[in-house]
Amino acid sequence: MWIPYDIRGSLKAESAAETIRLSRADESVRDFLVGFFVRNPVTQSWELDIVATSDGEEITAPTTGGQMLPLRLYGNDSGKLSEVIIRAPASSAEAALALAHDALNRWVLRQVVETGRGMAIAGWRIADNANDARWRCTPFRPSALQLNLATQDPLDADLMPVVELFQRARNAPDAASRMLAAYAVLAAASDGLPALAGAVGADFAVTQEMLIHAGAMDHVEEFKGLDLYALVAALKPQHDRLIAPGGMLAALGDDLPRQKHLARLANLADLAAHRLILSEMRARRQGATTAAIPGAAPNHVAEARGAPSC
């Protein structure tokens, strides 16, 4: 089962609906507490290679606009930084998150340069203590899958490069890399890559269910019902924005709203690539079964690929 690994586009309420409503109706500027979980993208541990105590240490960090915010750094049982809590004055949870994320992201980037280590923001919690409202956005911790390994067919050699691209999308710790890898699969299919001929021949369309899984329901009107070619065209501007002239990666410096937008569309591209590859594998199995039945119609997909039909 495909699951989204990047859910920055969503903010889940943890308080009662009426409490959340009252907080959103409150337009006064007040202090929000925003707690950030951090992650080492190399070890996948929810900690950074920075010494911190469980009691916390308070520092200040500037936002892009020059506002100074207090950051309190907390360590885990191993003595490494695992959570940062920021007090941010704002009139809404979203505004507080944007302000606090800006300050922490600038600080984390500074530490990446200072240490040469991999560092990332993994998720966050928000508290509006004035209205007793809470929200969170934390990564999924999927359970282990029970697979019937004995029934799996080997992966065909011509599909391996395509699946490796999808693997890069699944393994990517950031939305930009996920978009680049997943879009490559979609573009290859739309350009007529023989290895994906069976998937392209199937009825592919972006469904509401796909948008829900990708956390991209904000884009229903834009993407629902698109076929493969229309989806590639719709994602192309976002993909091209990541590439600078000369084919180099673009240095973007996106703020949190743009990061959220990219995360949602990268999730959708990732999911669509997964659906295409599964569709191709189903088409191949069906073709092999049909070809094995005496008197059955030939496997035109396999023949078009230049491969035997069974």
Outline the structure in words:
- By secondary structure, the protein is an alpha+beta fold.
- It has 2 domains: 12-137; 157-284, no CATH class.
- The chain has helices at residues 17-25, 93-115, 160-171, 175-190, 197-201, 208-213, 220-223, 228-241, 256-292, 300-305; strands at 12-13, 30-39, 48-51, 57-62, 68-75, 80-90, 120-128, 133-137.
- Strands 1, 2, 3, 4, 5, 6, 7 and 8 form an 8-stranded antiparallel β-sheet that branches.
- The longest helix has 37 residues, at 256-292.
Q: What does this entry show, briefly?
A:
This protein is of the alpha+beta class.
Range of helix content: 40-55%
Mean pLDDT value: 87
Largest sheet: 8 strands, antiparallel
What's the total helix number?
Answer: 10
Low-confidence stretches: 298-310
Strand composition percent: 15-25%
Q: How many angstroms does the end-to-end distance come to?
A: 28 Å
Structural class: alpha+beta
Question: What is the CA-based Rg, rounded?
Answer: 23 Å
Query: Shape from CA axes?
Result: elongated
How many domains, as an integer?
Answer: 2
- What is the number of strand segments? 8
The H/E string reads: EHEEEEEHEEHHHHHHHH
